[in-house]
Amino acid sequence: MAEEYDHLLHQILDFHGHGHAEWENLVQGYFDAKALVYHETRWLMMHRIAIYIVLYVQFLQLVMYFDSHPRMAMLTSTLKKSLDNMFHFFFLFLLIFAMLGFTASWMLGGDVTAFATVGIALGSQTKMLFGEWIYADNADDLTGVMVAMYWIYALTFMLLLLYTLLNFFLAIVVDAFVQVKTHIAVQTFEQNVCLDIFDLLRSGVQYRSRSWPARSTLLKAIDDAIENTPPPDPEDAEDRIWTVQKLHGVLPDAMKDPARLASFLHSYSLKCPHTFVCCELALSAEGACQGARASQHDCIELAFVQAGAVLKPLMREAFPGATGPEWSYERIQCGDQVMHRVSANFMREKTKGADLSPSEQVLR
């Protein structure tokens, strides 16, 4: 652009003629240079707009990419949760906003310039929402009943839009955020995004160094096995447990080696311990469900074994030295209602600095 301006300037500075033709050439050269400057300016503005659109699209892509991690997806998840309530909120808000703007223009437009037309009134109300002003400039000039009309409008706008509906909007967002946060809190596989990025890089090295098949290959093999397997029987515990033998049968040939499969399962058990159960549980389930359908007593015993297998690692991690569980059953009758309560009791020895006595129950 500097070259074009320099060319325009020298059209005048380099003029040395005195005749009519020279002056016409000067004027023509000046307007040609000016048209070139305008053309370059429009070209630059078009590119600025195009780059702005590209940057905004990339911004939206960045926001959408946050969905790849539960913690980073809080923004998009909150918006999705609150979308229905937001739609009805903005519908109500815009109706009241437009009605108040039309009312202010109809009654006060002739005396207050901020409400001279409906469009100006809506613009003034937008400024009021952002706290620019609440008292119009020439409202002091109002007299008689117009003063009352103005303050009825102003107080209605403040109480209904500023203090009530805007707080409704904040409540909708906060309520959706709390729901998303609660959902994330119960996810056993979720962890810090920095740890996940580190684990992503480390997993790539593990897959290559230990010759594991690609994750897509493993997922496809398991998905195919699930699709080709009939739905599990809710009363058959064996159908609901994926043992090492089952995994060995559906995984690719590269994972048939027992040592490689063991290292793979051990690696994922460290990442997601809640997705794995101990071998005692699997063996008990397989033993209890051999042959015909298990009896009711066997099913109840199996349920205790399954619950104990889940509770044991959690309790031992939270309370080192805890033993159990010891199960207790209690039948409680309140009038015509009968309640059955089953408790899992864990114990641990009293140690120096510990907060539990030898007979104290740490969980019920």
TrEMBL record:
Q: Where in the cell is it found?
A: Membrane
Main localization of the protein described in the UniProt heading: membrane
Name the Pfam families on file: Ion_trans
Which residue ranges does UniProt annotate as crossing the membrane?
49-66, 87-108, 150-174
Give this protein's Gene Ontology molecular function annotations: monoatomic ion channel activity
Q: From what organism does this protein derive? A: Zooxanthella nutricula
Q: InterPro entries per the record?
A: Ion_trans_dom (IPR005821), Polycystin (IPR051223)
Write the protein's name: Ion transport domain-containing protein
